[in-house]
Amino acid sequence: MKILHAYATRLALPAKKYGGTERVIWSLAQAQMRAGHTVKFLARNAGELANSTLKYDRNKPVQEQITDWPDIVHFHWPFDEELAVPYLCTEHGNAGIARDYNINTVFVSQKHAQNHNATCFVYNGLEWSEYGSPNLNMNNSHFHFLGKARALTKNLPGAINIAKNTGNKLRVLGGSRFNFGRNSYFSFDKHVRFHGMVGGENKNHLIKNSRGLIFPVRWEEPFGLAITESLFLGCPVFASPYGSLPELVKSEKVGFLSASYGELEDAVRRYESFDRKACHELAREEFNADVMCRKYSQLYERVASGQALNAQRPYSTKDVTEILPLKE
Question: Is the entire prediction scored with pTM above 0.90?
Answer without folding.
Answer: yes
